[in-house]
Known about the structure:
alpha+beta; 3 helices
Amino acid sequence: xxEADDFLADILPRLREAEIALHTxxxxxxxxxxxxxxxxxxxxxxxxxxxxxxxxxxxxxxATRFTECTSLEYEILAAGASGDLAYLVAIERITATxxxxxxxxALRATTIFRREDGVWKAVHRHGDPYRQDDAKPHAHxxxxx
Length: 145
């Protein structure tokens, strides 16, 4: 197995568990997945935060918006690991009750991980809404001839 394969085998089950818990109203597993040591950053669909003192309460607030996660799937676009750093780029498709309304949505998310005491911990996440029509192919740009 490659470093990236080992990373994905370890992180995907933990990440999925943490995100399902968050989307059922429990921020605890997400908080456990994240480093509490700076630097940590969140550029989220709902909030931008820096430092664990800002992230922890934000995760608690986000969890209050959700109940009844019925589906959470990852479309992995890219992943890599080298030494004590790793990344995951994915489309996250989620169905949950949001503020009392059953809702399905997708996010494009990039998460950076740092290995701390042998355990992968999230240290940065950037997520924003994903719409299928955002995925149009880009024209190839070449340099001067």
